Structures are given as structure tokens and as C-alpha cells.
Amino acid sequence: MYQQKQKLMVTMTMKKAWNIANLPVYSLATYHKGVVNMNICTYVTAVSMTLKLFAVAVYENTKTLDNLRDSDIAVLQLLAAEQYPLVRKLGQQSGFEYSKIDYLNRRKLLEQWQSYPVLKNVSARFLLHRLEQIPTGDHHLFLFEVIKSQSLSLNHLQSNTYGSVKLFADEPARTCQRIRSK
Fold this sequence. Notes:
The protein is of the alpha+beta class. The protein has a single domain (23-178), classed as Pnp Oxidase, Chain A, CATH 2.30.110.10. Helices cover 18% and strands 42% of the residues. It is built from 4 helices and 12 strands. It has helices spanning 2-13, 63-70, 86-91, 100-106; strands at 26-32, 35-41, 44-48, 53-59, 73-78, 110-113, 116-119, 124-136, 139-151, 157-159, 164-167, 175-178. The strands form 3 sheets. The protein has a 7-stranded antiparallel beta sheet with strand order 2-1-5-8-9-4-3. Strands 10-11-12 form a 3-stranded antiparallel beta sheet, with no helix packed on it. Strands 6-7 form a two-stranded antiparallel ribbon. Strand 6 (110-113) and strand 7 (116-119) form a beta hairpin. It is globular and about 40 Å long.
């Protein structure tokens, strides 16, 4: 009975293998006809150092994916720990139905960088040029070359193993908000 109870507890709390890692939380800004859209990305990784390359997975049927089909430029923004409230607005609401930029403008959260509207107070940002797109199931994998980058802070936001947002700063990490529950 005790072993069955333990097994049940482990089964209830375990995540699928690809959701276990603590991943940095990014916002990908995409541009189409002078209009910007931003979403949340955690499936992001650097894939080369000599030629600075990033791989970014973008979810199917999103405004971000539509924008990337029409534009070769994007800005990848590593969110700072205190930007965790943006995860809900940028990641859980569709750019087709909700103007994320109106929301960000009303709160004065945007600035210009390299002639593009971007989030203020991020930990880092990367101006990207799209090289390749590969459909990969429910996401599309994009390969980007880094044109320009800027490091601003080591205080960045990470997802934790339970689908929540975790802060990493000078203070102890704490869970703040759910990103997505499945």
C-alpha cells in the first residue's frame, strides 16, 4: 500500500522529459508591415559560437509564425526576472485577437533598439536574421544568425520544472506564476 501511494505521488508530479529542464524565458519580437508582435519562447538555444546562431521553436498557428513567414528580421529578448508578469500577456494571448503592443505601449514598456521596438529592461537582446525554417510537428524550428547583441543584466527569468516561472536574482528563487498548464 505504501509503495503504491509513493508511486502515485511520483506519477502525479512528474512532467514529460522535455518539460523538466529549467529554461530561460525569452520574448521573440517579430515585425510585419511596421507592426510588432511579441510572444514567449522557452525552446531556444545557441547552436554555434564562431558564426553566432540561435535555434528558436515557434508554435504553430500564431501571429509570430505568420510574421516570420513574411520577414527575415526578429529580436530575441531574454526576459529579466521582474518581467514575469509579461508571460501571461505575451505568451497566453493570441496576437491575432489581442494587441500586445497596445498593452505594452500603454504601460510604457517599449523602447527603440537598432530601429526596432523592443521591451525595456530585458537581460539581453539579439537582433536576428532568419536563415532557415523547418516544420517540426506543432512547432516550426527557425535558425537565425545574430546580427547584433546587447547584454544588460545577469538577472534573468527561467521556467521551472512544474511549468511555472522561477526568478533567478540576488535573492533566493521563488515560483511566481504559471506559464501554461497541460
